[in-house]
Amino acid sequence: MKEALKVPTMAEFFASGKHPEVLFWVGCMGSFDDRAKKVTKAFVKILNKAGVSFAVLGAEESCNGDPAKRAGNEFLFQMQAATNIEVMNGYGVKKIVTACPHCFNIIKNEYPGLGGNYEVVHHTQFINQLLEDGRLSMEGGQYKGKRITYHDPCYLGRGNNIYEAPRELIQKLDAELVEMKSCKKRGLCCGAGGAQMFKEPEKGDMDINIKRTEEALETKAEIVAAACPFCNTMMTDGVKGKDKEASVSVMDIAELIANAADL
Amino acid sequence: MGYLPNIIFLLILIAGIGYFSKNIRRLSRNIKLGRKVDVSDHISLRWKNMVRIALGQGKMVVRPVAGIMHIFVYLGFVIINIEVLEIIIDGVLGTHRIFSPLGAFYDFLIASFEVLALMVIVGIVVFWIRRNILRLQRFVKPEMKGWPKLDANLILYFEFVLMSLFLVMNAADAQLQHLGVPHYTRAGAFPVSQFIGHYMEGLSVASLMTMERAAWWLHIVGILFFLNYLYYSKHLHILLAFPNTFYGKVTPNGQLNNLEAVTKEVKLMMDPSADPYAVPAGDSEPPEKFGASDVMDLNRIQLLNAYTCTECGRCTSECPANITGKKLSPRKIMMDTRDRLEEVGKNIEKNKGQFVEDGKQLLGDYIAAEELWACTSCNACVEACPVSIDPLSIIVDMRRYLVMEQSAAPTELNSMMGNIENNGAPWPFNQMDRKNWAEEEN
């Protein structure tokens, strides 16, 4: 029997008059999507193991407004932003970590103009820092020498110029990091951004996630590392579509680290 | 009679520059049809961007072959323009090679111009082959049929002719110098044109002089013609790349602007003391239109972007939607915006400075909703553009119009937005269940 997860809420912290080191913004995918919930839990295990004082908003968290904004509904986005900012400012939130690049981008870049000023970090940056500060330790063991390719999420890479933190983590697993034909600044999108996740694609020759999956499979990697719940879904679907799920798995970097640290 | 060439030259020069400045005024009037935008921020970063991206061609070399060839043509055109200065002075004063007293330095200058001219010719030939023989995908996309294709080739022919004239002029000049013909003072070094000069040996002084003069005149008239061709072609980037990279995006690519008009309304809606039935004050402006359906709804930087686009198609070749066969092409978004803006500009000229409704708009008549809904907002186009054009911002502004003014989002997106409104998530889950994962089995 594994240890139960410790997931305190901001409300609980507030009631005891304390402040957590960081707010973990779980996001809609991380809260409700079965695949993404596993990533959420893996990240919480890491936080618990490293003894990070964190909290979630729980039922007080609401969609950050990204899909609405990218679909063109600025009203709905700003309503969502105003509500979330009110809650977070009420709790005096200073620092936020999230496992979703869409949440990361919008809170970091688009909330400040609406009164929400926080230090926002992506979970790959946060985990990397935990390892560097010696708060978390792990041995590559499990993934030593495995071929892992990393798919850059657009909102982390091109959107915010974060290319290295996730790659450093893969290297810390002692794995062999192999790059796809298009990567980093020129990485191909998984096809989910800009609210595409919630609609059928427009008419074309092929779905974008299939195209990207082909690039991933070309690397002959055993693991496709993701750092975004939407990319994870798209790439998982793509690998299934190519009947490769027996030999290739799509994993979030937090899951890889949690497994390597034997959590 | 002696001053006739000087006078003709001066008249051509005035006409060429005069017409060009008229077109620049047109351009600036059209750009000013867009919404004003504050660009007083990040001034030093803006200068750095201009120096790195436009002057330094920083993003061109991402694709090495095209990048290096482009640097040849770019350097050639910029540096050989020093020679144009001499040509203009000679033309006005009736002198010949007025800078020649610079001596050895002059020889060095002319020699480097010749080498550069040769490099330009190499670049142009490679470009022509890529477009017409290799037919690289991005040059043969649907939006490149007809005029855009011809325009691109015409520009290459032009540049080829201009460079050839420059070399022929020098070759004939060198022969005349060699023959000791008065007026043709010994000056310059001709490392490239000497090979053309071989074929001129033995020609009479008269025919050499005709050749030299003809090449000289055609060269300068050609340059003035080319200058005026810019406005009617895709080639304005040679000028506009500089302001465009200066005014380009300085915030992270992932960041979209927040609409201020919406912020005001949201504040009002969330203010418990606001009176929802209050009648707006009599002199208040009509509510701002949300998003963009036509070029006037876009901002000035977006319109400058449209004029700057040189249709290279790097954006389109990196666009995930386009790669997988969707209708969206970021290049076409820019070309459509420019073409519609030109149409509006002509409408204004025809109607004494006032735009008269023509029953057309950018959305629908130029850009279809299907194109807009294919975008994944991945920023590949923005990253790929070598001159800091942002097609994504236009796509988002047009989506805003579709959704906020017309409620014309695809059905699935409407249910997604309905869910966010009611449940705080894009799916119909209860907000109270957001932390259930923590209690579920690991």
UniProtKB/TrEMBL annotation, chain A:
Keywords: 4Fe-4S, Iron, Iron-sulfur, Metal-binding, Oxidoreductase
Classification via InterPro entries: Cys_rich_dom, HdrC_iron-sulfur_subunit
Domain called Cysteine-rich: residue spans: 22-107, 148-235
The keyword Iron appears for this protein: yes
One GO molecular-function entry: 4 iron, 4 sulfur cluster binding
Cytoplasm as UniProt keyword: no
GO CC entries: plasma membrane
PANTHER family in alphabetical order: IRON-SULFUR-BINDING OXIDOREDUCTASE FADF-RELATED (PTHR43255:SF1), IRON-SULFUR-BINDING OXIDOREDUCTASE FADF-RELATED-RELATED (PTHR43255)
Protein name, as recorded: (Fe-S)-binding protein
Species of the source: Cerina litoralis
TrEMBL record, chain B:
UniProt entry tagged with the keyword Iron: yes
InterPro entries hit by this protein: 4Fe4S_Fe-S-bd (IPR017896), 4Fe4S_Fe_S_CS (IPR017900), HdrC_iron-sulfur_subunit (IPR051460), Helical_ferredxn (IPR009051), NarG-like_sf (IPR036197)
GO terms of molecular function: 4 iron, 4 sulfur cluster binding; metal ion binding; oxidoreductase activity
GO cellular component, one term: plasma membrane
Domain 4Fe-4S ferredoxin-type: 299-331, 364-397
Alphabetic keyword roster: 4Fe-4S, Iron, Iron-sulfur, Membrane, Metal-binding, Oxidoreductase, Transmembrane, Transmembrane helix
Transmembrane intervals: 6-24, 65-89, 109-129, 150-172, 214-232
Protein name per UniProt: (Fe-S)-binding protein
